[in-house]
Design brief:
Elements lengths: L10 H13 L8 H12 L7 H38 L8 H18 L11 H20 L5 H23 L5
Helix pairs in contact: 4-6, 5-6
Length: 178
């Protein structure tokens, strides 16, 4: 009996309830046929997967066309602009030290040639000068292809020096001083 219930219920009601509880069976066992049915179901191979496993696949398939359409739309709207940005901002390839030296040498050569009036060069020297210019361009191309070939810088230097010397000799023969 509970202390809180002491004043509300009588002892007689508790005794009656206790008697009824004692009359209930202590355990209820299922019939033997139920256990045999359970064992038979456990031994059977499952014929089909439960429908709950197939549901997410159908759900995914339903959204697949929508997701594909969204991806195509995003690529159509954003793709060309992004492609253009990437190609527009592509960094210039870094020059090797040999290429930078060749550029410096070419700048010095251009300054020296600019100081010489080219229209006063004798006509018989023009084909040789063009040949030396073509040779210098070929050496510059070879330097770009093989930036580790240091001997090419020496050849370029000699070609430029020969071109300048030939130009000066032609001007000296014409009576002009450089």
């Amino acid at each position: 009996m509970n202390r809180h219930d002491a004043g509300h219920e009588s002892e007689h009601e508790h005794d009656e309830l206790a008697a009824r509880l004692r009359q209930l069976p202590s355990e209820r066992l299922p019939p033997a046929s139920a256990w045999q049915g359970i064992a038979a179901h456990l031994r059977e191979e499952p014929r089909h997967r439960p429908a709950a496993i197939a549901t997410p696949v159908r759900h995914r398939r339903r959204w697949l066309p929508i997701a594909a359409a969204a991806a195509v739309a995003a690529l159509a709207l954003l793709g060309p602009g992004r492609w253009w940005e990437l190609h527009e901002r592509s960094p210039a390839p870094l020059e090797s030290p040999l290429e930078m030296q060749a550029d410096a040498l070419a700048d010095q050569y251009r300054q020296a040639i600019a100081a010489i009036p080219q229209d006063t060069v004798p006509a018989e020297l023009v084909p040789a000068l063009h040949e030396l210019d073509a040779s210098a361009a070929g050496i510059r191309s070879a330097i770009a292809q093989s930036p580790d070939a240091g001997f090419l810088l020496g050849q370029l230097r000699r070609t430029y020096a020969l071109r300048l010397e030939l130009t000066r000799q032609g001007l000296a023969a014409a009576g002009l001083v450089t």
